[in-house]
Write a structure and sequence with these properties.
The chain is mainly alpha-helical. It has one domain. The chain contains 8 helices and 5 strands; from the N terminus they run βββαααααββααα. The chain has a 3-stranded mixed β-sheet with strand order 1-4-5, with no helix packed on it. It has a two-stranded antiparallel sheet with strand order 2-3. β4 and β5 form a beta hairpin. The longest helix has 27 residues. InterPro entries: Lgt. Pathway: Protein modification; lipoprotein biosynthesis (diacylglyceryl transfer).
């Protein structure tokens, strides 16, 4: 398959002012649009005011953009940005890291939960863990349109030639990742519909960490290196960064199981408060 789609979807022109709108930007922005609708559904399903969703989405939007950009700056090209600090703000030139986005989202959710006293940090994170995999799916499709985050050369029948880069047939690694994240979203959403109100705090978020970053670790073997300093490494920077996230996911699952045992949190009923009397 030959892929030669221009990264610019269309251009907004007003007089002498021209603003190119990129496919990647459209897919990235769409993640927050659909996220708004899904979170409204989750809040409505749990009897919470839907208006609270708008504050949460704004916090997550800011945390995602700032965290993803700083993650790219610090993890993948620190030397360049230290010598060109004004380029740190040039998000439109590309360069966002999913691991940085996770850190940014966690900080944003923590700040949000401090304001929303009836929404504990891990309660919000559990719902984030349901919706974010679909965001990852759309963002990787945007990477495919941009002909970036390329797969390794291959001779498989479904290989893609990214004509804007070179003439080598490559693994469509972006689509592999997008498909994995879509499946993870469906798994998480189904789990939420069955257990969302009764699962111990942190369980769904731990599943999210393990599934998403476990998939990311495996799929890195199909990708070209993202930074020059990775040359000669046994595993990539993305894989190194995924390992601690997976371990945090394992801890969250273990912690949730402990809560279930100690405090009597069930899977098919509302959780019993720790101070509630035995029946």
């Amino acid at each position: 398959m030959l892929w030669d789609v221009a990264p610019v979807a269309f251009t907004i022109s007003i007089g002498s002012f021209h603003l190119p709108v990129y496919w990647y930007g459209l897919f990235f922005a769409s993640t927050f649009v659909y996220g708004l609708f899904i979170f409204r559904y989750l809040f409505r399903r749990e009897g919470r005011p839907e208006d609270e969703v708008y504050d949460l989405v704004l916090f997550v939007l800011a945390g995602t953009v700032i965290g993803a950009r700083l993650g790219h700056v610090l993890f993948y090209n620190p030397g360049f940005y230290l010598s060109h600090p004004w380029k740190i703000l040039a998000v439109w030139e590309g360069g966002l890291a999913s691991h940085g986005a996770v850190v940014g989202i966690l900080i944003a959710v923590w700040l949000y939960s401090r304001r929303a006293t009836d929404q504990p940090f891990l309660w919000v994170c559990d719902r984030i863990g349901v919706t974010v995999p679909l965001s990852g799916c759309l963002i990787r499709i945007g990477n495919f349109f941009n002909s970036e985050i390329l797969g390794r050369p291959t001779d498989v029948p479904w290989a893609v030639i990214f004509a804007r880069v070179d003439a080598l047939p490559r693994h469509p690694a972006q689509l592999y990742e997008a498909l994995c994240y879509l499946l993870i979203f469906l798994i998480q959403f189904r789990f939420y519909l069955k257990h969302g109100n009764s699962a111990p705090l942190g369980h769904m978020f731990g599943r999210f960490f393990i599934l998403v970053f476990g998939a990311r670790f495996v799929l890195e073997f199909f990708k070209e290196g993202q930074a020059a300093f990775e040359s000669g490494w046994t595993i990539t920077m993305g894989q190194w960064l995924s390992i601690p996230v997976i371990l945090v996911g394992v801890y969250l699952i273990w912690r949730a199981r402990r809560l279930q045992q100690v405090f009597g949190v069930g899977w098919d009923a509302e959780p019993r408060r720790p101070d509630a009397p035995e029946t």
